């Protein structure tokens, strides 16, 4: 009886249609999920479809179809644009293992046009090879950052009134320039006015040339003002920013009849805040020979030390108060003492520092 039942089941299975047998074969019809197919005489279906996407059918011989492996990065990009002769039967831009479709039937299957990547030479139809889109560089004043651009500045470092033990008056110290980063026309002047007249002072016109990142050489002329005969000098020197942010200026002078002189200056800025600044300043003057008519002796003539505290309401305008010490030395001290003036003087000062 058991044998009879088993024989009936076998006959029932053989009696099923071929299509039903294929559907019950599991996931054999899906690419990459192929299982060895039972040997049947019925032909395999041509293809099964799912929506608009064509699915490949099992080969008539029953051999499994390979499953495409996922690709990433450059490999995926290369496969996406691989030409016909490297992947027979594939349309450019289609997935591996998918049959090519008619472009007219499925417009979305057309290959995607890739845009030009950034960098490299400009395209042939570019309006301007430098990508400026035809816009010319700006010529607004002060916006030219080239080394050849010329600028101008006039700055009063000291414009003050002073009160000493025996003398009261006004003092000025200024510098200005016109030129570019390499070469400038430089103007410097300093002096004192006592009892409504200029007692001493000088004016210098120099050509400044950059020789290093923070240093310039100077060459020009100096003209003395004030009491006594006027003196003219040929000036040559150097100025710049020394280590630790010291502003330094050193100038040598040569005049007629073998007259020589030198001036050394240095100043520094101590920032308590961005607006409250203390500025110490030191100056020394030397002369190669006596000039009694101007009250000057040879050697180290005088030392001047100033200490000024300013408040920058704006960078261009800063009132200040301070103190100035003046000490005459050597032969100059003898001449000053003989004229009845103090050798050492302490002066209180108040003024304004401005530039434009």
Describe the structure.
With 356 residues, this protein is mainly beta. It has a domain at 151-355: Porin (Beta Barrel), CATH 2.40.160.40. It is 10% helix and 42% strand. The chain has four helices and 15 strands. It has helices at residues 2-15, 18-23, 73-80, 330-338; strands at residues 48-50, 53-55, 151-163, 168-179, 183-194, 197-210, 215-226, 232-242, 246-254, 260-267, 270-271, 276-287, 299-311, 317-328, 344-355. The termini are far apart. One of its GO terms (molecular function) is copper ion binding. Keywords: Signal.
Write the layout of secondary structure elements.
Blueprint (H helix, E strand, L loop, with lengths): L1 H14 L2 H6 L24 E3 L2 E3 L17 H8 L70 E13 L4 E12 L3 E12 L2 E14 L4 E12 L5 E11 L3 E9 L5 E8 L2 E2 L4 E12 L11 E13 L5 E12 L1 H9 L5 E12 L1
Antiparallel strand pairs: 1-2, 3-4, 3-15, 4-5, 5-6, 6-7, 7-8, 8-9, 9-10, 10-12, 11-12, 12-13, 13-14, 14-15
Keywords: Signal
Organism: Dyella thiooxydans
Protein name: Copper resistance protein B
Helix content: 10-25%
| H-E order | HHEEHEEEEEEEEEEEEHE
Number of DSSP-assigned strands: 15
Q: By CATH's scheme, which homologous superfamily of the domain at 151-355 applies?
A: monomeric porin ompg
- The CATH class of the domain at 151-355 is identified as Mainly Beta
Give the percentage of residues in beta strands.
35-45%
- Going by helix content, strand content and strand pairing, the class is mainly beta
Can you list the strand order of the major beta sheet? 3-4-5-6-7-8-9-10-12-13-14-15
From the spread of the alpha carbons, the general shape counts as elongated
The CATH topology of the domain at 151-355 comes to Porin
Low-pLDDT segments, ≥5 res:
18-29, 40-64, 68-109
CATH architecture of the domain at 151-355: Beta Barrel
Number of helices: 4
